[in-house]
Amino acid sequence: MKAGIVGLGKMGKNLALNMMDNGHDVVAYNRTPKKVKNIEEKGAEGAYSLEGLVEKLSPPRVIWVMVPAGDPVHDIITRLSSLLKTGDVIVDGGNSHFKKTLERDQMLGDKGIELVDAGTSGGVTGARHGACMMVGASEDIYEYLEPLIDDITVEDGCIHTGTTGSGHFVKMVHNGIEYGMLEAIGEGFEVLEASDFDLNFEDIARVWNNGSVIESWLIELTKNVFEDRGNLEDIKPVIDSSGEGKWTVEEAIDLGLSVPVLAEALMVRYSTQQDENFGAKLIAALRNQFGGHDVENK
Ligand SMILES: O=C(O)[C@H](O)[C@@H](O)[C@H](O)[C@H](O)COP(=O)(O)O
């Protein structure tokens, strides 16, 4: 298959290489020409404008968009909507909010353009050597894309989740779970670190990843982190988040569900963003008021 790729960041570039490794032809566009040049050297056909990318593909065109969720993806899809024709397919491989995907699907559907949401997991390594994908699409469009999707995902690492929007919905919940699992690992190692035993975290993570109940890719990565970064002295304890954990919790609230672990994991991330935790200061002062407990002064 010949596919267009928009966005040659870490994920897009590696997905393009993955497609080419598997015998697919790639036309690649990025707003930074240098990135286009780089991928041309690796065998892709370069496009230096969105218009140019569309021209180099023949109908029904498949354009895989790998740009950050939010305004960038919205901008690209809006621009593509006026360049593409009935029957063409846009795949949004980023972490878009599923409700935005449903809105965009409606907008594109009015023009006969198909939108596919391919929630993609496995990070950069996955994009390069075989990702895990959760794909929302109509039956016939999924069938059309299946040979390509099968090639760029790991074995049994792809699911057609249902109609457009469901891929991003399932990926959102996946990331909500990811927040909870990360938080559990972080807290566990915090307890280990605080103990009086002289523990080797790298060895513990390595052994936990060999037959234990919590054996997993995240534990393998935990081992790698300690291997690469020792006791994390060079890292600031600040955790960013790009939205999926928040959306999962919001969705759960809208559905009337209690998801305390996912919510707490999100709140912990937010709390790390606060240099000056006013609430904590107030609680310390209140403990002093009612119990006479010491307040630590700056
Ligand atoms: O499944 C994955 O490969 C990851 O989830 C990936 O999609 C990305 O690393 C997250 O978007 C990070 O999400 P936060 O920025 O919200 O932690």
Automatic annotation (TrEMBL):
<dbReference type="GO" id="GO:0004616">
    <property type="term" value="F:phosphogluconate dehydrogenase (decarboxylating) activity"/>
</dbReference>
<dbReference type="InterPro" id="IPR006114">
    <property type="entry name" value="6PGDH_C"/>
</dbReference>
<dbReference type="InterPro" id="IPR008927">
    <property type="entry name" value="6-PGluconate_DH-like_C_sf"/>
</dbReference>
<protein>
    <submittedName>
        <fullName>6-phosphogluconate dehydrogenase</fullName>
    </submittedName>
</protein>
<dbReference type="Pfam" id="PF03446">
    <property type="entry name" value="NAD_binding_2"/>
</dbReference>
<dbReference type="GO" id="GO:0050661">
    <property type="term" value="F:NADP binding"/>
</dbReference>
<dbReference type="InterPro" id="IPR006183">
    <property type="entry name" value="Pgluconate_DH"/>
</dbReference>
<dbReference type="GO" id="GO:0006098">
    <property type="term" value="P:pentose-phosphate shunt"/>
</dbReference>
<dbReference type="InterPro" id="IPR013328">
    <property type="entry name" value="6PGD_dom2"/>
</dbReference>
<keyword id="KW-0560">Oxidoreductase</keyword>
<feature type="domain" description="6-phosphogluconate dehydrogenase C-terminal">
    <location>
        <begin position="167"/>
        <end position="296"/>
    </location>
</feature>
<dbReference type="GO" id="GO:0019521">
    <property type="term" value="P:D-gluconate metabolic process"/>
</dbReference>
<dbReference type="Pfam" id="PF00393">
    <property type="entry name" value="6PGD"/>
</dbReference>
<keyword id="KW-0311">Gluconate utilization</keyword>
<dbReference type="InterPro" id="IPR004849">
    <property type="entry name" value="6DGDH_YqeC"/>
</dbReference>
<dbReference type="InterPro" id="IPR006115">
    <property type="entry name" value="6PGDH_NADP-bd"/>
</dbReference>
<comment type="similarity">
    <text>Belongs to the 6-phosphogluconate dehydrogenase family.</text>
</comment>
<dbReference type="InterPro" id="IPR036291">
    <property type="entry name" value="NAD(P)-bd_dom_sf"/>
</dbReference>
